[in-house]
Give the backbone structure.
Amino acid sequence: MDKLLLEKLAKRIKELRKIFGFTQDDLSYKTDIARSTLGNIETAQNDITFTKLNKIAKAFDMTLSEFLNF
């Protein structure tokens, strides 16, 4: 994934997490993704798999399409 897209995705996750009142630990628990991995995703340091994207979208009660609408 290119860096600009990763940065946009990172911003989207962080914004939604704050809107929903989730800590990284909360989101980690809801998605079964390590908190350290989520931290790296939120800072655009890690690429992300489709499976992880889908887990995060579900944690926000969104379809993948809704989640990626940024």
User: Anything to note?
Assistant: The chain has a mean pLDDT of 95. DSSP finds five helices and no strands in the chain.
